[in-house]
Design a protein that fits this description.
Elements: H1 21-33, H2 37-45, E1 49-55, E2 58-65, E3 68-76, H3 85-88, E4 100-105, E5 111-118, H4 125-136, E6 144-154, E7 159-168, H5 169-181, E8 188-191, H6 215-283, H7 287-297, E9 302-310, E10 313-320, H8 326-331, E11 336-341, E12 346-347, E13 354-362
Parallel strand pairs: 1-4, 4-8
Antiparallel strand pairs: 1-2, 2-3, 5-7, 6-7, 9-10, 10-13, 11-13, 12-13
Length: 368
């Protein structure tokens, strides 16, 4: 027959057997801490923690629900047998067996000290301390249970400050045996004022994590954790997406502004180039003015065979019956300067004319 769905099947999964159990446990506790108090208590009632606080041969039993503790009875070391039905199955309002049993020692029974070790031992801290117990404490490794945590680094990161806590095995052995006999073996050995997650029991003495509920319960618990994570992460993800969108738009606007600035610079350079061309063209003399000046200045009987103009310099070749007088005549022209023969005047025997080669500078005459 199929098992009916019931809220009582919902159990928070045990994280002790998973890699990175401490990190996952802190993450789970943080998520649960964000829930309303009534919901936190409802979940805690389905996964209660049994805390055994010994006082000599007697112990007080507490049910821990989150950060709250409720006394539920006592336990005698001198009598055997299982726990009472009320203690063994939880108390009114709880559903099922205990999530785990914790033996909490009085603080004076635990020796705590801070030691400095090389940073290389950080990854194998428990194994290294197992070899150093007889040097760091008055006991041998077989005489104590111990746990440690890294509190920080020193010496520019080459050393680690380690808090070491130890307790004598013979002081807790009877209680561990008693709880094992009672059907609720201790999975955690702690003490009053211990740091979060402290456990003096070595891993090989801890009971295997109890299978909880059914696969349906596990699936529902996983879905609950995923939904809680989604509720917490979704606003951050949305803000991140909005920031990425705004950053992309800003990048596109910046690129468009740079393109507009580039086009503006190109247009300005083109304008300046065209203005420079027009200015230079305006400053250059007109060839018609030069031809008119030469026509007026050169006497009859003179003709020009070639005329070249380059960068304000005029070069003319031709024949004249009074070539030697051409220098004085050309110097009288407006805009004409530095008139000189480029070569000696030669007599043409066939015509009786004189062949000349003259150069001069010509500029645009100033307007009167």
């Amino acid at each position: 027959m199929a098992r009916a769905l019931s809220p009582t099947l919902i159990r928070l999964p045990s994280l002790d057997a998973l890699p990175g159990a401490d990190l996952l446990r802190r993450w789970k506790d943080t998520l649960i801490g964000c829930l309303p108090r009534r919901l936190r208590r409802w979940l805690a009632l389905r996964n209660p923690l049994l805390v055994v606080v010994p006082e000599g041969d007697d112990a007080t039993l507490w049910r821990q629900l989150g950060d709250e503790r409720e006394p539920i009875g006592g336990l005698d070391l001198r009598t055997g047998g299982p726990l009472s039905s009320v203690v063994a199955g939880g108390t009114k309002g709880s559903r099922g067996a205990w999530r785990e049993t914790c033996l909490e020692l009085p603080a004076p029974q635990v020796l705590s000290r801070t030691v400095v070790l090389p940073v290389q031992v950080k990854d194998n801290l428990r194994q290294v301390l197992g070899y150093e117990i007889d040097r760091l404490t008055p006991f041998k490794p077989v005489e104590v249970y111990y746990d440690a945590r890294v509190r920080g680094t020193s010496a520019r990161g080459t050393k680690v400050d380690v808090q070491l806590a130890v307790c004598r095995r013979d002081e807790v052995a009877d209680w561990l045996d008693r709880l094992r006999e009672a059907g609720s073996p201790a999975s955690r050995l702690s003490w009053a004022g211990a740091w979060p997650g402290a456990n003096l029991l070595p891993p090989e003495l801890r009971p295997r994590p109890r299978r909880f509920g059914s696969w349906l319960g596990r699936l529902l618990a996983l879905c609950l954790l995923l939904l809680l994570a989604a509720v917490l992460i979704t606003p951050i993800w949305q803000k991140t997406r909005e920031l990425e969108t705004l950053t992309g738009e800003l990048r596109r606007v910046r690129i468009a502004a740079q393109e507009v600035e580039q086009v503006r610079d190109d247009l300005e350079r083109a304008r300046l180039g065209s203005v420079a061309v027009l200015e230079r063209k305006r400053e250059q003399p007109r060839m018609t003015d030069l031809l008119r000046e030469l026509t007026d200045l050169l006497p009859d009987g003179t003709w020009v065979q070639t005329l070249n103009y380059r960068e304000g310099e005029v070069d003319i070749r031709g024949e004249s019956n009074q070539a030697t007088a051409l220098i004085g005549l050309l110097e009288q022209g407006p805009g004409i300067s530095e008139v000189s023969f480029r070569s000696p005047v030669m007599q043409v025997a066939a015509t009786g004319q004189e062949r000349f080669h003259i150069s001069f500078q010509y500029s645009r005459p100033e307007s009167p």
